[in-house]
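User: Okay, second chain of the day. Same drill as before: sequence in, structure tokens out.
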Amino acid sequence: MQSQVKIKEVKIGSIVTVKYDDGYVATFKIVQSGDKHTGSKYINSNAPISKAVLGHKEQDDIKFRISNIQEIKCKILKIGN
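Assistant: Same drill. Structure tokens below.
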């Protein structure tokens, strides 16, 4: 009998830990646009970082833009619920 390991993908409601290229580590929860969560631990699903990580897996390298000139790079370290 084969063991099936479920690979987690980032989705709305996931708690995501990322490490940016400069070494900074951040953990946040992706919330649905319109949800009434406030604070730095909650990121709207329409935010650039949310759009970039949605559907990705742990250890994926991600790139996204926060303006026309600035590109941000990070790695997904952990995905939780």
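The chain is about 5% helix and 40% strand.

User: Thanks, on to the next one.
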